[in-house]
Inverse folding.
């Protein structure tokens, strides 16, 4: 059983190594521009959503703390 797990892990690492070699290939300019545009849009969305999510999480934490301390009184 242990040998089969070792072989499985070794084969997964080998496949990841082969995939990472392909990932280093040069991209055409159009693809690079598209990927850069997607990254820019993703960063803009993150910049817009992060304050909203942080506020929501903060409010949830405050409500839970309020409930915890009011139940003890």
């Amino acid at each position: 059983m242990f040998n089969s797990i070792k072989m499985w892990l070794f084969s997964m690492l080998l496949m990841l190594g082969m995939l990472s070699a392909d990932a280093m290939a040069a991209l055409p300019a159009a693809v690079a521009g598209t990927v850069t545009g997607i990254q820019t849009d993703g960063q803009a969305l993150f910049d817009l959503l992060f304050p909203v999510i942080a506020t929501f999480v903060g409010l949830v934490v405050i409500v839970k703390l309020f409930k915890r301390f009011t139940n003890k009184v």
